[in-house]
Amino acid sequence: MQQDIFFSNLKEQYTLELPFVVYRKPNASEVTAFLQKDSTINYVSDFQEKGFVFAPFNTAEKPILFKEEDCERITIDSFKKLENLFLVDTSAIISEAAHQFHVALVTNAVSTLKEETDFKKVVLSRKESVAIEAFSPLEVFQNILATYPTAFCYCWYHPSIGLWLGATPETLLKVYRNKLSTMALAGTQRYIEHTEATWGEKEIREQQIVTDTIVEALSDKVQKLEVSKAHTHRAGNLLHLKTDISGTVAMGDDGIKEVITALHPTPAVCGLPRERAKNFIVANEGYDRSFYSGYLGELNNVQTTERNRNRRNVENSVYKSTATGSHLFVNLRCMEYTDGLLHFYVGGGIVEGSDGEAEWQETVHKSNTMKKILPVK
Ligand SMILES: C=C(O[C@@H]1C=C(C(=O)O)C=C[C@H]1O)C(=O)O
Q: Matching SUPFAM superfamilies, A to Z (predicted)?
């Protein structure tokens, strides 16, 4: 499909107030959209469904599903950057009250982590809301595509739920056939050109907690577990520490559900132990995370890959292989739009040595991932 037709289909869908999602996977060129034919709200129940899932942070709330059979699926092979895309940094609007609240929140967490020796890490976040006069989500989505080729870029809309956009660096889970992969992502610093990143003991410890917890959670479900060394991963203007984790998985009757339940929410967005961290978050953050730090992506989709047989004398040397799989991402570096307001959601991991002011700054830098792609009229 041609790019202009693709986006005009999406625009019509949005004007008609019908649900849709449009996304591009990390380092991929294809952009895919699911256009739901009516405005029903469907939920995932057993994770055997096929379609696109959008799940909140709170596991007590059901993930929303755009069912494959209820959607028209359209794609473009690649996105060509348009001339009139302009990028502006709107980082100026920050409230001093929000600053003070976040520093106090982190300070409270650090003393709780010191008091309770079993409580190792908690991820604390905030929501920053900014008034915006005119907002065209599809135009902003194109800015996201043009700016973040290595992220999972998306725009998700349901008239009864809301409108979300993001460019996340974090995979929750990828499973095709019996191959599973995931990552442990944590630790943050700003990217500075021509400078090699070095990581402090606190960041290394913070990220190791995520790796160890994921490995432990998968140990009885995944065979041939391979765990890479932690390495620096660039996400826009930020750097993180990342460990790649992979293995083979024998899907039981519960399919992917068991693995998702074991992983979500990981200590990259919640903490360790999970229930203690969750309780601390709910009691102290002072707002509802909603879909921020939940997950989203393709659920049980058929993926076709072209392979070259690479043999002589085989006339039709390219053949296609198909596999059913799921590819889910953690909903970070995202924003929500509600009548005239844009809400940016940002957080960071807190361990015993964390500093309130530094953590505040980290959230400010993270919020720029979304702020810098907003067009001004
Ligand atoms: C919680 C966020 O990011 C997560 C927390 C990180 C950290 O604590 O350093 C780094 C990457 C993400 O796993 C966010 O972007 O809001």
A: ADC synthase
Amino acid at 337: Y
Closest to 236 in 3D by CA, of 202, 289, 186, 188: 188
Cα 214 from Cα 302, distance rounded (Å): 26
- Distance in Å, CA 55 to ligand 1 centroid: 18
**pTM metric for this prediction:** 0.94
Residue 123: which region, alpha, beta or left (left: phi > 0; alpha: psi -120 to 50)?
A: beta
For residue 264, the one-letter residue type is H
Q: What is the pLDDT of residues 320-336, one digit of tens each?
A: 778 889 999 999 999 99
Read off the amino acid at residue 179: K
| Alpha carbons 366 and 88: distance in angstroms, whole number | 15
Structure tokens at 137: 């989500």
- Evaluate whether ipTM surpasses 0.95: yes
Nearest-atom number in ligand 1 for the CA of 347 is 16
**Per-residue model confidence (pLDDT) at position 94:** 73
Which of 41, 49, 43, 140 lies closest to 87 in space, CA to CA?
140
The length of the chain is 377
Residue of the nearest CA to atom 11 in ligand 1?
186
* Close Cβ partners of 257 (under 8 Å, ≥ 6 residues apart): 46, 47
> Could you give the 3-state DSSP secondary structure of residue 115?
helix
269 lines ligand 1 (CB under 6 A): yes
Nearest CA among 227, 87, 222, 208 for reference residue 143? 87
Give residue for tokens 């009229």. Answer: 377
